[in-house]
Specification:
Helix content: 25-40%
CATH superfamily of the largest domain: HUPs
Largest sheet: 6 strands, antiparallel, barrel
Structural class: alpha+beta
Shape: globular
Length: about 475
């Protein structure tokens, strides 16, 4: 028989049909499966002043949403942020495996509503020792949270961003999908941490995906991770850190910050992520912590295993989270980008060698997928022109260059201090001199792809960045 607490929530649901004044709304579920929960919560600064809901679907969905609203209402924000599917199910006297999905939906809706409310109106008293920790559901962010919990006098608060939702993507390979958010929240709760969810899908689409699509349409090869970290993702989390009274934001990136406030490369060169953080402003870096900066990936996994974290051996997520499991051209077609448009592949003298599927699909230095070969040596893409829809190819030697044009140059130190540049993520740094908007390379490189980011270095210090111009 159903527990009497389940029956009470089913017969007299707490807050059903109510939307509190100043409430922030969130939805979980889908009409296609028949179960939908809409949750609304209002804050008075540090406490959930009111919570209400609407639900469609089976009785378990209604009861679970009622229990979630009751658990949150009147609770301090960070207590309400510890409510997950397990707590909702327990409030109903337990749920059978077949009904546990209802508790997950209710917890999802509550977490999203709390995140929206916290982002807009939370005002927790400042606690300099508190850290907001970005958790993606992977091993790196989990260990970063673990290290913060050990070191901070105030318990860390976890946050996960939902950035993208696409039925064609592989959720298991994405660090920003709805399922990844749910896994990150469960892990944070397992670690005893309050957890907030921020829905940044609109901002991510406008600030990262749309410029990436536009870049391809213009014949460029943009790096969306630099833009995401520099102006969308970390910016939103830093703002939230202030609202929950946290003195810093910690992430699982492999990077360091020096005593001079400049970004530095990580101890583990194989995992160094300073390249994708290079666009961060000094004001943001001053509030960031990178607990993994001195560790290797092997050490991180060993630490996770010792602590019994279930993500200890989870594979790393795909770098371009919104492409997870989706081919680039198919994605561009689905989301309003350039479509396949056959054109000519030309040699360096302008003679046709073959046909291609669209100039936007090629990048300087590319060999695989070109579809034509030279008599004596492989051919590489040496240039693209989306206006004429042509792709020019030549021998690898034609890619060699010692000069790179730049745009949007951003320096964190005088130009004369720059000693090296990295022209692509994971590419080796090469000696250089920056002269205005042009790089003089003291060692030739095999092409520089327009749209990619050039990151300026002196040793392990990151001194700025720019965009490689056509």
């Amino acid at each position: 028989m159903p527990d009497e607490r389940f029956e009470e929530h089913l017969r007299h649901p707490h807050g059903r049909g109510r939307r509190p004044d100043g409430g922030h709304d969130a939805v979980a579920g889908a009409a296609a499966c028949g179960d939908v929960v809409r949750m609304s919560v209002a804050l008075d600064g540090e406490r959930v002043s009111a919570a209400g809901f609407d639900a469609e679907g089976c009785g378990a969905t209604v009861a679970a949403a009622s229990a979630a609203a009751e658990l949150a209402e009147g609770a301090p924000l960070l207590q309400a942020a510890r409510v997950g599917a397990q707590e909702v199910a327990a409030a109903l006297g337990g749920l059978s495996p077949g009904k546990h999905h209802a508790a997950e939906l209710a917890a999802d809706a509550l977490a999203r509503a709390l995140g929206a409310a916290a982002r807009a109106g939370a005002a927790l008293a400042p606690q300099p020792s508190r850290t907001l920790v970005a958790m993606s559901g992977g091993v790196d962010s989990a260990v970063a949270a673990l290290l913060c919990a050990r070191e901070d006098a105030a318990a860390p608060v976890a946050v996960t961003l939902e950035l993208w939702r696409d039925a064609h993507n592989d959720a298991e390979r994405s660090c920003c999908s709805a399922s990844a958010v749910r896994e990150a929240r469960a892990l944070a709760h397992r670690m005893g941490l309050a957890h907030l969810t921020l829905d940044l899908r609109d901002e991510f689409r406008a600030g990262v995906v749309d410029p990436w699509i536009a870049g391809h349409a213009a014949g460029l090869t943009p790096n969306p991770c630099v833009r995401c970290n520099g102006s969308v993702r970390l910016e939103a989390m830093l703002e939230l850190a202030g609202r929950v009274g946290a003195g810093a934001l910690a992430t699982g990136h492999y990077a360091r910050i020096g005593d001079d406030g400049l970004l530095r490369t990580a101890t583990d060169p194989a995992k160094d992520q300073s390249y994708v953080l290079a666009a961060l402003e000094p004001e943001a870096l001053a509030r960031l912590r990178f607990p993994l900066g001195e560790l290797t990936k092997a050490q991180v996994r060993e630490m996770a295993e010792r602590e019994g974290l279930p993500v200890a051996r989870r594979p790393d997520s795909q770098d371009l989270c919104f492409l997870a499991g989706s081919a680039r051209e198919a994605f561009l077609t689905r989301h309003g980008g350039p479509r396949p448009r056959p054109g000519h592949i030309l040699d360096e003298a302008g003679r046709p060698l073959g046909r291609h599927r669209g100039a936007h699909a090629f990048t300087v230095g590319q060999r695989r997928g070109v579809g034509v070969g030279g008599r004596d040596a492989p051919l590489y893409v040496t240039g693209t022109d989306v206006a004429s829809n042509t792709v020019t190819v030549g021998p690898r030697a034609a890619l060699l260059t010692t000069r790179v044009r730049l745009s949007d140059v951003r320096l964190r130190a005088p130009a004369e201090e720059i000693a090296q540049v990295r022209l692509r993520y994971r590419a080796p740094a090469v000696p250089c001199t920056l002269r205005g908007e042009e790089l003089e390379l003291r060692e030739p490189v095999w092409g520089a792809a327009p749209g990619q980011t050039a990151v300026f270095l002196r040793g392990d210090r990151v001194l700025g960045c720019a965009t490689i111009a056509p």
